[in-house]
Amino acid sequence: MDLLNHHLVRAGFRVPDLEKSAAHAIDVLGLQIADRDESSIALALPGQSACLVLRQADASEFDFMALHTTEANLAEIRRRIDAAGVEATAARELDGDGLRVYAPNGVAVEIGVGEGHVRNAAEREAGPVIGSLDHLSFAAEDPGAFRDFFIDILGFRLSDSVLDRRHWLRCSPNHHTVAVFAGKNGIHHYAFETDDIRGLARLGDLLAARDQNFIWGPGRHGLGANIFTYHLDPAGAILEVTSDMLQVETEEEWEAEVWEDTLKSGVMWGPLPPAGFRDLSIPASSVAEAAR
């Protein structure tokens, strides 16, 4: 069975300043409040369901990621979970039929039956037109175990690796929906996408007007070939806004490549990453709870 039909639909964070984090997502990304209560705010692209959920907390933590897939795929994932003896519970964040599992680095992953996103194209007066939530890049003390979990249990495929320390995984034509780097268990960055480099220029202009700046970029990655920018959100999480991600349109013609650990994998053109960039991460909420 071909499981390459999952769609990243939502990510959640716990943040120390709920209003400030929500305002950043609204002003910089063009998200809108879809729902809120005293301790949480759900944000969505215009006319869509929530793609980003923020919850008040004492410290910054990654809360969950959520995928939509088909009924047949979910049934196959349940079979794999049972065969592997992986603990699963009912989904908390997704409506309808779905489940929650935890990746080896403690990240909560939900997957349920549902459609993929409808790409947003609503114009804005300032800032980039954000099409969708694009991908999530995690850190893991055992990146190989993380990779194998997403492949063997959730049906992702390996797109590329850098030695055995970094892996890029896909569940659709997008070169990667999930990536993992060696590091402390948690999330390294989350990414939204815009059409092209003109959208990234609009983002830079908007950040400058807010007395903010990129911490890395613009540039083009070797792996994935996407044009990238990175800046910090108010909770201290790294937010990538990207464009032109490589699309794997013909599965039979794609072979995963193992890249050497050279600058070309990270930067085809553009500035070099700042010192310590790969070491930045915030913990998964389950990891943080276990440490408390």
UniProtKB/TrEMBL annotation:
Matches recorded under Pfam families: Glyoxalase
Coiled coil location: none
Name of this protein: VOC domain-containing protein
Segments forming domain VOC: 4-114, 132-244
Organism: Humibacter ginsenosidimutans
Top-level taxonomic group: Bacteria
